[in-house]
Fold this sequence. Notes:
Layout lengths: L8 H12 L1 H11 L6 H15 L3 H9 L2 H5 L20
Amino acid sequence: MQPKEVVNLNKFWNEWLRCQSFRYQRDQVYRFGRFESCSNRWDDLWKAARAKVSTDTKYAKEIMDTTYYRRTHKKSSTMGVIWDAKNPPSWE
């Protein structure tokens, strides 16, 4: 079993549950005109579970790097959906 610092299973569980919620799906219909299938978050949950039970920390980190969440949400889960990141940000 991997420690929480390597694999935080709660984060992926919460992301999947958030995607399934009425409010999130309503926002998807409002913004994009369609429901989201949440399959990428379901796949992430399974990858995280597989990494969590792995005995090799390096292998677990490699699995975690392939998740949709890690590839798309580098800084914020809403960046790129609601706004684009400024380069450099206005507060700097």
